[in-house]
Each structure stands twice: as structure tokens, then as C-alpha cells.
Design goal:
The chain is built from 15 helices and 12 strands. With 454 residues, the chain is α/β, with parallel strands linked by helices. The chain binds 2-(acetylamido)-2-deoxy-D-glucono-1,5-lactone. 2-(acetylamido)-2-deoxy-D-glucono-1,5-lactone (GDL) binds next to loops.
């Protein structure tokens, strides 16, 4: 921890994505990775753990209870703060007093297990109150604040050192501007929520490319406290074809002094989070300047150890080239950009003008093919399985291009039509989603145009 950051600054992970929650082995491994990366906190809130959200009133039992108990114990042993998040917002009735009792019962079980802190999340829920609740409150912000304030008083009686965390219904600037949660939601919340309760915020967007000091100061003024960043930079639950292993970036080091902490909600596939979390740890502890590319390359060098095969470890240059194709939501890494430029040149120009670029691409495609074959031999099978879909997709595209370039480079074939025998309609890029995508033609700026001639 940098000397300038307060002792209660939280840094680490939120398991807060949609999709299959991590398993006990992955969570144990995570604790070691957090500790080694200088991170200090973990929040449990997988959207698809039923007890977190859908059946939030029901305490844990059986295997789930013993796994959670065991994990909380491990967190304590490793000095990682454990936060449990409850998300009652899908169906809570704020005006029904028994609902607060249900929340207390849930917290009671969790505190008895050794859970240190509690979070109450109101993200991704209907943003209006029920008819009954409207008789008592004019804004969802007031209803949520009054319930959580009451819970706060009770929790502190049970566990005087516990902290409470709150995720608002509009949790980024775009949502607030769109009026989600009703007029003045954030300023009402800032005024009415007990000042000791921390508030999550994802930045200008759900997936924020940048979070500036000016931005968090502005939101901090509305909240009447500095926000705690829920960072979705490396989350991938919104696009099953992608994952992100680029460096933590887009947040100046000075940001750390303006917030209560940063918790990253990363890739659903646990084994793919090595670099995101390692670089987050380095960012939190950095002094002086932050060079994201250097940090990425350094962390990739450490991740390489996980890429052992029966014939030795995978080459670091190949790994970096692959990582650059799965870098960050808004940008690929330099190696991916170089490849894209080469491919663009080949497709945008007549084969008679290709010169050395055709050979350059074919050499590269052979290298990719070798790399993909080596990955199938990884001894860390969960890592291979997490990568498989993405390897497959990229391999298909590179293979198709290589066939195209080979075909067009042959004498007399430059102007002949090309079709690959291995990329057939129906099995290659087939299916309803692809069909719809051909109709929905997106421009680079996000504007939507019809993909069908009028
Ligand atoms: C969200 C969800 C989160 C999800 C993420 C990325 C918050 C507060 N909530 O909106 O569960 O993983 O986007 O899709 O970010």
C-alpha cells in the first residue's frame, strides 16, 4: 500500500458478474493472487448466485453454507477483507416492515460466519417504486436509503467494526443523465444515506474507458462522500466472444487520493484474470509514473508460467501477440493493431500490388497456427478451457485469410472468386445472431444504420 493511501482504502475484486460463479478452488487461488498483488479486499456478489439476488430472503444451507464458511475463514487467514453483497432490489417492498427483518436475518447468518462487511446493491433492477411504496416515498433513493440506514444501525450494534456499502440504481454518469431512478436520485441519496455508508460508482459509463479526478470530485460532491469505484474495465459478461487481459489503465494515479477504493469486477472466467489483477495491484501501489504497457509486459511475463505444456512453456512473444488481441474493451494492443493493418492492406488492395506483404502475412499465419496448436497442450486445463472459444474464433479468421491470400497469390488467380472449403455457410459464422448482425449495421461511432437496402 502506498503511504499516502488511508488504511481503510479497499482494493481488490468484486465477483459481481452475470454467469457461472467461480468455484471454491478458484476462489482459494484468487486469495493468494490478491495477497501477492498487494490487494486487500474481495466482495461476493455473483449475479447468478440465487441467494445473492433472486431468493435474497433465504439464508444459505448445506454445501453452499459450508463452502462460504470455509471461504470466509480463508479470507480472514489471509487478511483479505470479505464483503458479502445482498441484492434485494428485484422485488423488495420497502413499506413492509418484515422486509427489514429478512435483511437482518440474512446479515445475521453472514456475520455469524465471520463476514466482515455488508453491501446492499440496487443495480440492474426496475427503477420505480411499487404503488404501496409510492404512498410513503417519492423517490427510490429515499426508500432505499431509509431501509439501508435502518440496516446500518442494526449491523453496527451486531458488529461495531463492520462497514456498509451501497450500489445505487444509476451507478454511472450515463445512467444518471438518462434520469434512471427518477429526478435527483443521486443528490437525494447523498443527502439521505447515512454518511458512514460507502457508495459504489462505475464512472462515466458502465464500462468506463477513463475515470478522471474531476469526474470523481463531481460525483463525490453529490454523494457527500468520495465514491468507491466498482470497476468494470475488465468485465466480459456482456460479450461472450471477448475477454480482457490488458493492463489496468485510464485512471490517473492521483485518482487514488479522491476515492475510497477500487474493486474490479473482471472476466467471468477466473483463469483469465491474472494480468488485470496483477496490474491493478501495481497501480494501487505505484509511486511516480504509471507505464501501462511496461506493466502489462511485466505481468504477462509472470502469467507465462501458467502456460506450461508437455513440451515446455509457451513463447512469451506469442502470448503477448495473443493478449494484444484481447486487450481492453476500447482498444487492442500494438501487436493486434499491426496485424489488423497488414490484413486491411491485403484486403483493400489488388493482389498484384501485395509485394512482400502476402509472404509476411503467410509467415505470420503459420506462426499463429503453431501457437494455437501449442495451446491445446496446456497442462493447466481450466486455463485452456477458458481460452478455447476465443482461440477457436481467432484461428478460424486467420485461417480463412491465409487461404484467401494463398489462393489469390497463385498465377492467374488474382481476379478469380475465392471460396474456402473449410468455411462453409451455415457452420462458419452461422446462426441467428450472425444473421441479425448483418441486418443491424453499426457505424464506428455507434450509430445504427440499416444493413438492408431500402
Ligand atoms: C453491470 C452490473 C454488473 C455487470 C457489469 C458488466 C454493475 C454495478 N452492475 O451493469 O453486474 O457485471 O455491468 O456487464 O456494474
Amino acid at each position: 500500500m502506498t503511504p499516502s493511501l488511508p488504511a481503510n482504502f479497499l482494493s481488490g475484486v468484486i465477483e459481481g458478474f452475470y454467469g457461472a460463479p467461480w468455484n471454491p478452488e478458484e476462489r482459494s487461488d484468487l486469495l493468494q493472487h490478491l495477497a501477492e498483488s498487494g490487494l486487500n479486499a474481495y466482495m461476493y456478489g455473483p449475479k447468478d448466485d440465487l441467494h445473492h439476488r433472486v431468493i435474497w430472503r433465504q439464508p444459505y444451507a448445506g454445501r453452499e453454507l459450508s463452502e462460504l464458511t470455509n471461504f470466509i475463514r480463508q479470507c480472514r487467514a489471509r487478511h483479505i477483507h470479505f464483503l458479502y453483497a445482498l441484492a434485494p432490489g428485484l422485488d423488495i417492498h420497502f413499506s413492509d416492515p418484515s422486509e427489514l427483518e429478512r435483511l437482518k436475518e440474512r446479515c445475521s447468518q453472514l456475520l455469524a460466519l465471520g463476514c466482515e462487511h455488508i453491501a446492499v446493491l440496487f443495480d440492474d433492477i426496475p427503477d420505480s417504486l411499487s404503488a404501496d411504496d409510492r404512498l410513503r416515498w417519492t423517490s427510490p433513493a429515499s426508500a432505499q436509503a431509509s431501509m439501508v440506514n435502518a440496516l446500518w444501525t442494526w449491523v453496527r450494534e451486531q458488529a461495531p467494526s463492520a462497514r456498509l456499502f451501497f450500489c445505487p440504481t444509476p451507478y454511472c454518469e450515463r445512467m444518471a443523465r438518462a434520469g434512471l431512478g427518477g429526478p435527483d436520485y443521486l443528490s437525494i441519496l447523498g443527502r439521505e444515506l447515512h454518511p458512514a455508508i460507502d457508495i459504489f460508482w462505475t464512472g462515466p459509463e458502465i464500462i468506463s474507458r477513463e475515470i478522471t479526478v474531476a469526474h470523481v470530485r463531481e460525483i463525490g460532491a453529490l454523494f457527500q462522500r468520495p465514491p468507491l469505484i466498482w470497476d468494470n474495465l475488465h468485465a466480459n459478461d456482456y460479450d461472450g466472444r471477448r475477454f480482457f487481459c490488458g493492463p489496468y489503465t485510464g485512471r490517473p494515479l492521483e485518482l487514488r487520493g479522491e476515492i475510497r477504493g477500487i474493486l474490479s469486477n473482471p472476466n467471468c472466467e477466473y483463469p483469465l484474470n491474472f494480468v488485470p489483477l496483477r496490474t491493478l495491484g501495481r497501480y494501487v501501489q505505484a509511486t511516480g509514473a504509471w507505464n501501462e504497457r511496461e506493466e502489462y509486459l511485466r505481468a504477462m511475463g509472470e502469467w507465462q508460467e501458467h502456460f506450461d505444456t508437455f513440451r515446455g512453456v509457451i513463447d512469451l512473444d506469442d502470448l503477448v501477440r495473443f493478449g494484444d488481441c484481447h486487450y481492453l474493451p476500447y482498444s487492442e494492443g500494438p501487436e493486434a493493431n499491426r496485424l489488423f493493418k497488414l490484413v486491411h492492406h491485403l484486403l483493400a488492395s489488388h493482389p498484384s500490388t501485395w509485394g512482400a506483404s502476402a509472404g509476411e502475412f503467410l509467415d505470420e499465419s503459420r506462426r499463429w497456427r503453431g501457437f494455437f496448436a501449442r495451446l491445446t497442450e496446456l497442462t493447466h486445463r481450466p486455463l485452456y478451457h477458458a481460452l478455447l472459444r476465443r482461440i477457436w474464433d481467432l484461428r478460424e479468421e486467420i485461417d480463412l485469410l491465409a487461404r484467401y491470400v494463398e489462393f489469390k497469390s497463385r498465377p492467374g488467380q488474382a481476379d478469380l472468386p475465392f471460396q474456402s472449403d473449410y468455411h462453409l455457410p451455415g457452420t462458419y459464422r452461422g446462426g441467428m445472431i450472425t444473421r441479425l448482425q448483418t441486418l443491424l449495421n453499426r457505424q464506428p461511432d455507434g450509430a445504427l444504420a440499416s444493413g438492408v437496402a431500402w
